[in-house]
Design goal:
This protein is an all-alpha fold. The chain has six helices and no strands. The chain starts with a helix and ends with a helix.
């Protein structure tokens, strides 16, 4: 593939040099004709200057075409591995085999689906669409969910023992001590009640 492309590039550049040189030769004849006409007084100096300008332009085009040919030949040399001074064109009357498939639309479809530049552009479009969706999503309402999870280190047996011991000890001690003290206090205070009543009666 690279060899074929380099060959046809060099062949096209070589043909361009031939065409430019042919044009330069034609312009050179026009320049000489303009000079002769000016010498015999049949044309003005302006006509001669215009012909000279066209010839100078043809020379610059020839130099550019020759430089392009050298670049194309150098690229071909890198592929074939030996110096190349010129390339031979196709023989006259040669018949090239038709492309397979012969349907132009199939080649267009393959170029559209397999061309890496087209694939890169598609990926760029898809990425841009995702960025648009991301930007739109930033304006949507948000909802925050907070959850917590804990684990009690006391088992069922530990909880029962703690509750039973605490309730039994605290309840028994409190009821016994407080109840006993309250009952003793009642026996001590009650003898004074009749004496106070007697004094009120007198």
């Amino acid at each position: 593939m690279r060899l074929g492309q380099a060959y046809f590039d060099a062949l096209s550049a070589q043909d361009s040099v031939v065409i430019v040189r042919s044009q330069k030769a034609s312009i050179a004849e026009q320049l000489e004709s303009a000079k002769r006409s000016f010498d015999v007084g049949q044309s003005t100096i302006t006509d001669t200057n215009e012909a000279q300008a066209k010839y100078d332009q043809a020379i610059s085009q020839e130099i550019a075409a020759q430089n392009d040919l050298e670049v194309k030949l150098a690229a071909l040399e890198q592929i074939v591995g030996h110096p190349v001074t010129r390339v031979d064109g196709l023989a006259h009357g040669v018949t090239l085999p038709p492309p397979i498939p012969a349907d132009m639309q199939q080649w267009v479809d393959m170029a559209r689906d397999a061309n890496y530049q087209v694939v890169l552009k598609r990926l760029a479009v898809a990425n841009s669409q995702r960025e648009i969706l991301k930007a739109q999503a930033s304006h949507y309402p948000t909802l925050d969910l907070v959850a917590s999870y804990g684990k009690n280190s006391l088992g069922a047996a530990g909880a029962g023992n703690f509750g039973g011991n605490f309730g039994g000890n605290f309840g028994g001690n409190f009821a016994g001590n407080f109840g006993g003290g309250f009952g003793s206090g009642a026996n001590t205070i009650s003898p004074h009640v009749p004496a106070a009543a007697a004094e009120l009666g007198n």
